[in-house]
Amino acid sequence: LLLWPGCCAIHARLRTGQAEAARAAYPGCRVVAHPECRPELIKLCDAAGSTSFLIREAARLADEAPGSTLVIGTENNLVNRLAARHKGRCRILPLGEAYCPDMAKVTEAKLLATLSAIARGTAEPLAVEAALCAPARRSLTRMLEICGQ
Q: Which helix (H) or strand (E) holds 18?
């Protein structure tokens, strides 16, 4: 795959000042962030990692340091789910406001319904306009060919 120095508009909302404010408001807190955040923010964090890492880190902190505070720099729906999951064991807070309207459309109930429909053979297939197929295929083929070099 071709990588470029782009960004995620949602993670780009999070700033270094928010990490500094979190540390001031919650002395001793642990601050972690998704690696799609700005590099200068990542440098101020205790750790950075994938969504899976953030989930594991919340569980680890809840188990190993009950009563502690974890501030997470990523999309807020994930942070809110983790806060609810570990409520009473540790405090989990969002670094700042970072809601993604597209990610909010994906829920566990909708995922279960989709997977169940696929298993039953009743899922609606995704239809792509024929005019879009050839250019999309060329683009993907080029990327894969370059990656293979």
A: helix 16-25
